Amino acid sequence: MDDSKKLKREKIIQIAAKEFAEKGYDAANINEIAVLSGIGKGSIYLYFKTKKELFLVTMQTVVDKFNEASQSVMNLDCSLMDKLKLCLESLFKFDDEYAPFIILWSRYQFQNYPDFQDEVSEIFKGLRQPFCEILKEGAEKEIFKTPHPEVSGYLVLSMACMLIPSLQPKNLVFDLPAEEKAKFLIDFVLNGLASGEKRE
After folding, report:
1. Architecture of the domain spanning 59-193
2. Measured between alpha carbons, how far is 149 from 135 in angstroms, rounded to an integer?
3. What digits encode the pLDDT tens for the residues 93-150?
4. Closest residue by Cα to residue 135 from 121, 123, 125, 148
5. What SS3 state is found at 2?
């Protein structure tokens, strides 16, 4: 695939993510996605054979983007607390740059949406869970005190999601300044999971 076609394909996926996030799979209009992507209605089938294929590729892109962000943090040579902070900041930054992708991720990470559940579940098996990895390693090193580090990792992730504007219900809006979100959650983790014995 040449570069121009690759860029066009990526643009279609970005537009599709917004359409699927806002309307859901059934109501999303593939012709509208084509027009917003700057191609003819029939031309979209040169890139994706069906609406379902486009949807599944979009979900794979969600997983790829999250994994890429996780990998960039987890590969750093720094403390677990720094990694936790950076993972949180990366997640909050996602909302600014990739809001539709984070909405689609949340639906399948937490809400068990029914669209093509078997196929999407298979895609999401490849999703890295850095919060669980950090908490698990921290528990082994006695930095965190928890008998269930993976569950604790998901709880930290869930709390972080409560501070992401695009994931908040309209009747539940937390007005916490962006620069304070990661520190707030780090303090919460330290107070709730600190062993008081050994820190990195």
Report:
1. Orthogonal Bundle (1.10)
2. 5
3. 887 778 899 999 998 888 878 789 899 999 999 999 999 999 999 999 988 888 899 9
4. 148
5. coil
Kindly report the pTM of this predicted structure. 0.86
In angstroms, the Cα distances linking 162 to 89, 110, 120, 172 are: 14, 12, 23, 9
Q: Which two tokens stand for residue 196?
A: 């008081």
Domain map of the chain by residue range?
A: 59-193
Dmax of the chain from CA atoms? Answer: 64
Rg (CA), the chain: 19
Residue 104 and residue 21 in contact, taking contact as beta carbons nearer than 8 Å: yes
Kind and range of the H or E run holding 130: helix 130-140
Residue located via tokens 């794979």: 60
